[in-house]
Amino acid sequence: MQILFRNTALPISFASHRRSIIIALIIVSCVCYFMTVSPQGGYLSSKILSTERSIYKDSTGVLDVEQMDETLLDLAPSAESKPSHSFGNIIPHDPSTSHRANATLLMLARNSDLDGVISSVEQLEAKFNRKFNYPWVFLNDEPFSYEFKRRVKVLTNGDVSFGLIPHETWVQPPWIDEERARRGRNMLTQDGVIYGDSVSYRNMCRFNSGFFFRHELLTPYKWYWRVEPDVRFYCDLEYDPFVFMEDHDKIYGFTISMPEWESTIISLWSVVKEFILDHPEYVSPNNSMSFISDDAGDSYNMCHFWSNFEIADMDFWRGEAYTKFFNYLENTGGFYYERWGDAPVHSIAAALFTRKDQLHFFKDIGYKHAEFSHCPQGRQWREGHCSCNPNDSFDFAENSCLRHFMRLDDDWMFG
Ligand SMILES: Nc1nc2c(ncn2[C@@H]2O[C@H](COP(=O)(O)OP(=O)(O)OP(=O)(O)O)[C@@H](O)[C@H]2O)c(=O)[nH]1
Ligand SMILES: *[C@@H]1O[C@H](CO)[C@@H](O)[C@H](O)[C@H]1NC(C)=O
Ligand SMILES: *[C@@H]1O[C@H](CO)[C@@H](O)[C@H](O)[C@H]1NC(C)=O
Ligand SMILES: *[C@@H]1O[C@H](CO)[C@@H](O)[C@H](O)[C@H]1NC(C)=O
Ligand SMILES: [Mg+2]
């Protein structure tokens, strides 16, 4: 099953070999169509289709299983779930199946995260991706073990790739003054800040801030959904959030927002302000400054989108504004001298360099990371069959930044 849904497009080099096959398949499809105009509907049609599939395969003997299944799926991409009439159309017009976004699911993980990885993938597959079959990309600063790949690949029908992170985009750069970095780590450790003394956590934050979207396994894609080990997805998602983002001209989607530990980003805001002064041209006239500042940009209020969940447009990170912004931050060494997180870095950029209507609160996606969750309310909770307690949602917490996001609506226009 691993390979069945891998490609929906015919590779051009196979096209001529397949012409006669396609003609034969059109005939098969027509036969299916007439056979399935029957009271039993879709279930019967898929049974017949799979029978036809194997008959056809036996009678040609030249195609391997992978090619065969891809070809059939081109013509009937939703054989299991859609009513029979779609088979008569050859190219189905159902909008839920005919358009897929240029998107991937993404997880950074260690081999030792395997149990948590399986748990997260299992849930996202069951709640969403079983119907959409988006590919997964897993990245690691060390090679994934055979066992890791074997256990993860089996969880999805989508394509799965496992990538190694280039050394120079992961480790502390040689120009960083290690003595100064060590003083910074000691200071945070004394303050009792989580991961205060961790270099690998800093590597991770810097990689997620400036490099993941340039990894060769991600450059083929525009959209990503970031997933972490050991998160929870509470609700069924019946629509495609990537297509939603595309159709509504969105750039960045989140579920939970909260304040950052101030001591991890002591100098970040002053660097941001310098950047804005140097490059006012990148700041959107309809920015979300009031999400990240309570005094019109003088100081940072620490609010950020919690980046362990992100559905976003990598072309924004790859664009001129963010590229210059990241390089500006990188050159200060703040990722190592302090402990700048990818969450405030992403959030500040998304708030300043996009229009506020390009940020999206996925209030219908029930999600939990560590001890914080977002649970949909009312109709969305019922229709999503959500397993979370709607009363237990970080949205209502004193230190949630959701009200800062909501007040963007009040400023002017829409959110
Ligand atoms: N390959 C690799 N992945 C890492 C490393 N450190 C963190 N990650 C991954 O980066 C993401 C964030 O790391 P976490 O340790 O979960 O950090 P966090 O979410 O801020 O903190 P928690 O509340 O502990 O989850 C997760 O997907 C981790 O699996 C590392 O050293 N190597
Ligand atoms: C997907 O998006 C990436 C990044 O924008 C782009 O380079 C690539 O050509 C796109 N692929 C398709 C099939 O549109
Ligand atoms: C900003 O919002 C205003 C008010 O809705 C709108 O008229 C204007 O076109 C927007 N500007 C940009 C650059 O999007
Ligand atoms: C949620 O809170 C309300 C009011 O406090 C209470 O009446 C209700 O029973 C709670 N629901 C659940 C599912 O806990
Ligand atoms: Mg985590």
UniProtKB/TrEMBL annotation:
Domain of life (superkingdom): Eukaryota
Stretches of the chain forming a coiled coil according to its record: none
InterPro entries: Glyco_trans_15, Nucleotide-diphossugar_trans
Transmembrane intervals: 21-38
GO molecular function, one term: alpha-1,2-mannosyltransferase activity
Keywords on record: Membrane, Transferase, Transmembrane, Transmembrane helix
Gene Ontology cellular component terms for the protein in this record: Golgi apparatus; membrane
GO aspect biological process, one term: cell wall mannoprotein biosynthetic process
Similarity section: Belongs to the glycosyltransferase 15 family.
Entry protein name: Glycosyltransferase family 15 protein
Species name: Suillus plorans
